[in-house]
């Protein structure tokens, strides 16, 4: 087996501390390969340094430099922790989709301040850490129907794709006389494609798509940088160079979280907010660990990840760290597969990746030069990639039999309807919480109507009932949010 072959060391370094700690030879790799893989993973993930601030600064409460600082800080520290503790080549950073929940649902829809919203993230991290330590996380994972897990991932993908189109200015809500009869004050439509900001976004999207089609790694990052350069070239003051490009990092957001969300929302809504956020974080992590683990050769013959508790624990602690620093919940990144694809196999890969995030801290002020229209293509493409969970895939089991997995039977109401409602309600209501809630309720309703009530896990009934009360909060409790 490849894992048992002895790989040559680079300059003899693998014979020392790095070899003893990361067991490079046992994994069929060497220092040079791991360093290259770490650089590759960083290049593929680095777009989050610009995209996370673009999301969290949507209403002006936070600044770009503040968010870029904590993004690099959390990604750096937690990726290094993952590498040292688990010896797995899986990096972490604030999660796209999760940051959108914080910005547009907790702050935008629920009216929380950012410290209060980050308090929800910290609370979710604490809960999910306890679930890992008590062994409950695996139990809960098995309780949620597979189709709902996929729907949550797809719904978040469509949500951030929608945000990308909106940030690019490609879609807008029409107002005025033609929309005077619209129930919610506007009609969603295509914006006239005649402005320079839209041109920048479309050019960046085109470059990103072409580079992805050509198989170029870090296509998302290169597309973001290319569109930023274009933004400086075109007329119209699309962007400008920061006045203090080397002002350095701003750590003022560290520790800026509050549990006052409980007093503002009430017990029920607070519990549901934490629960819905936990569900969104929960399944994204498991999918990433299995996906990257399969590519890296971490999985056993039954397709399970040995010592899964270790990466799950770091991931859970990363959620706490993300909330405690106002970076939003940090999670494992599927882009880690890029480093694995060039031969990376051990934790040294993400130690390098984390170190590069920390080395980026002195230059975070440069992120101010990146306009939101330049980050929009990244959101659109990442959203598209998340929808890929619905693709039918062929896997080979331990018995050698080929099985098809991943496809949703949309023609079957008990499987297709909850999935469609989950993934469409999220972008249409600008709330991931709403999408998850509708999915659970519709799943239980259809199953019970078909006489399959006993097939539903008790935990699913509890979650569905809680969400039902949540949706009836205006009628039952005269809620104001």
Structural overview:
By secondary structure, the protein is mainly alpha-helical. It has one domain. The protein is 60% helix and 5% strand. β5 and β6 (402-405) form a beta hairpin. α6 (114-133) crosses α12 and α8 (146-167) packs across α12. It starts with 16 loop residues before the first helix and ends with a helix. Residues 1-11 and 176-184 have low confidence and may be disordered.
Percent helix among the residues? 55-70%
Radius of gyration: 22 Å
In which order are the strands of the major sheet placed?
1-4
- Secondary-structure class: mainly alpha
The major beta sheet can be summarized as: 2 strands, antiparallel
Number of separate helices? 20
Identify the overall geometry.
globular
- In the predicted model, the low-confidence regions spanning at least 5 consecutive residues are 1-11, 176-184
Tally of distinct domains: 1
Distance between the termini: 58 Å
Q: What order do the helices and strands follow?
A: HHHHEHHHHEEHHHHHEHHHEEHHHH
Mean pLDDT: 85
- The proportion of residues in beta strands is under 5%
Q: How many β strands by DSSP?
A: 6
